[in-house]
Amino acid sequence: MSRTIIVSNRLPVKISKEESSFTLKVSEGGLATGLGSVYKQDDNIWIGWCGTEINDDEEKAQVIALLQKENLLPVFLSEEEILNYYEGFSNEILWPIFHYMSTYAQFEQKYWDYYQAVNQKFKQEVLAIAQPGDTIWIHDYQLLLLPKLIRDELKDVSIGFFQHIPFPSFELFRLIPWRAELLNGMLGADLIGFHTYDDVRHFTSSATRSIPVHATANIIQVADRNVLIDAFPMGIDAEKFESLSKDSKVQEEIANYNEILKDSKVILSVDRLDYSKGILQRLMAFEKVLTDNPEYIEKISLHMIVVPSRDSIAQYKELRDDIDKMVGNINARFRTSSWHPIHYFYRSFPVETLVALYSRADICLVTPMRDGMNLVSKEYIASRKDKGVLILSEMAGASKELADALIVNPNNLGEMYRAIIQAIEMPEEEQKSRMLALKDLVNKFDIHHWVKIFMDQLADIKVAEGIRKAK
Ligand code: G6P
């Protein structure tokens, strides 16, 4: 029987060590939930890094046994590999270039050497279990070389690749010294998916301009194979957010917030710590709202959750310091004895608390400088009953779908400022009609729909290629 193998840099679990034994917490994230219906079935499996450094062989065996019960298979990474493949090549070259922050990129040869070696390591794990006829679905920019590495060894498997971050325009992508190798790596897949058609266009243009391949519309011919490049905008588990918003514990949390915040307008922002998220620009816009509209003092507040991430990388550390400073300045400048404008949290929260905040927030401010999709915008919508205003950056993939949000350019401070004012003042009827349209979309194109259309498309290509080659 053929099996489906999911491969991503991280497994959808958190492993922690208590005394001498390991415990496991399976992630409740959207991707994990959506793919749950796939990897938990039969002999299917998910391969990825377990997220912590484990060197002892006995401990590795313990972790393998623990994960096996969940249909998960760990890849163990050494300290050097984490430093050079994950932090280095993935997050100091690909991440900044793909998010249009090219001056942050560090083109170190050592990073490239490790990136190749770790992609090889993942290949070994896949080859140890894959059989002809299997379907392999590889995720994201940490594993761009893996499709070809597998294809070279197993001609007859079906390989899908999905990139969760943007694909930049050729003028950015061409800066990478190893661009041809990366493209050839991705083109080992039968189907390459992105969140938006712009990503599809940028990828196709980069491929035809950097390597000798020919494209007809969104099909790229690689030797005797056709590779389909297409857009699959990712959704969330909308049902889960909606039902959580009605849960009695979440209702209690909402009641607590209501008591503390009374009838003041709450603006919410939730991000991982990242320079691509436009956190400082958002703070500037909020500061301008308070500066130019003193009547809002004590009437509005910004609740800003920043989830710690990649904090061993210099730019992330700097950003954290800059946020601390700016929040401190704004709070010191505007606070009164009974109110402060920004409630800033640098930590993660359980999903129940997030849903309570989404439910209480009158406005959700999602203004990344660049984002593949941005699922926070969809989580906010799914948690709402009917009203509420979403302000969304046009640089987030989600803006292509969520047209009833207030769409802004995060580099345009004046536009962000006006959108915040418009949101604060928006009549309830308009809020409702926008939100209900947004809810329809988020409910219909959810994570289960996303998994299904990608997997169906991958299966269809296999059949079509079989017919084409038989002719
Ligand atoms: C983005 C990427 C994912 C990554 C996640 C968290 O969403 O697309 O591949 O897993 O960020 O980042 P981290 O570096 O902590 O895995």
From TrEMBL:
Pathway: Glycan biosynthesis; trehalose biosynthesis. This is Alpha,alpha-trehalose-phosphate synthase. GO terms for molecular function: alpha,alpha-trehalose-phosphate synthase (UDP-forming) activity; trehalose-phosphatase activity. Belongs to the glycosyltransferase 20 family. Homotetramer. Keywords: Glycosyltransferase, Transferase. GO terms for biological process: trehalose biosynthetic process. Its EC number is 2.4.1.15. The chain holds residues 1 to 471 of 723 of the full protein. It catalyses: D-glucose 6-phosphate + UDP-alpha-D-glucose = alpha,alpha-trehalose 6-phosphate + UDP + H(+). GO terms for cellular component: cytosol.
